[in-house]
Amino acid sequence: MKKIVLLGPPGCGKGTQSKLLVEKDNFVQLSTGDLLRSEISNSNSDLGKKVKDLMESGELVPDDIVIDIIVKKVEKHKKENIVFDGFPRNLKQAKVLDSSLENVSIKLDHAIFFEIDFQILQERINTRANETKDSEKRKDDNSKTLLNRIEVFKSSTLPIVGYYEEKGIISKINGMQMVNEVYAEITKIIC
Ligand code: AP5
Hints:
The chain has one domain: Rossmann fold (3-Layer(aba) Sandwich). The protein is built from 9 helices and 5 strands. It has helices at 14-25, 32-41, 46-57, 63-77, 91-103, 118-131, 143-157, 159-167, 179-190; strands at residues 3-7, 27-31, 81-85, 110-115, 170-174. It has a 5-stranded parallel beta sheet, sandwiched between helices. The protein is globular. Residues 8, 10-16, 32-33, 36, 54-55, 58-61, 66, 86-87, 89, 93, 124, 127-128, 140, 149, 178-179, 182 line the site of BIS(adenosine)-5'-pentaphosphate.
């Protein structure tokens, strides 16, 4: 069973490709963004209240919150193919992921990094915002917050690439291709 991480800036296509891996290749998608958004949509969730403002401003939520969520999910899905979408987001999370996998005697097979011009991200996020009903629009899908999300990506998440390079499990792919072409590159790496 494969365990893979999709790494890349906001809007690069991590969620889109994760969904294809779920539909076509029997993967479980663990998206910390989706899990946190579902807490926010539950008006009784204290966790949702705690993370709402941070997510809406494009900042990362505290490590202990996402780590707690992910560690439980790893335990639950350890015998399945897992695609980690949006986790890890910094070196601390990357190290915790390694140790929580080790605890159940498994390891990460691949970290796949989407290379993409930041300019394209703006277009993609604008398109997504324009095509989504107002009631379902993501509060962080606007130009100002996107710029902050990109800065947070550069300062916190990008250093993980070097960490996975040292471990010899990084693959870089061209995230500017058509969706099916990106998917083909990913499947070539993981098969
Ligand atoms: P998260 O939900 O993870 O969002 P993100 O990383 O900003 O990424 P997106 O979901 O916007 O983009 P994506 O790369 O998945 O692209 P997608 O496939 O959707 O995180 C949100 C927030 O939650 C964070 O800011 C933080 O606050 C918090 N958070 C989450 N995880 C955390 C963690 N581990 N630690 C701390 N905080 C955390 O595609 C985007 C658009 O482009 C779509 O419209 C799609 O149709 C289109 N598209 C995709 N691929 C292509 C293509 N090849 N060609 C043309 N269009 C394409």
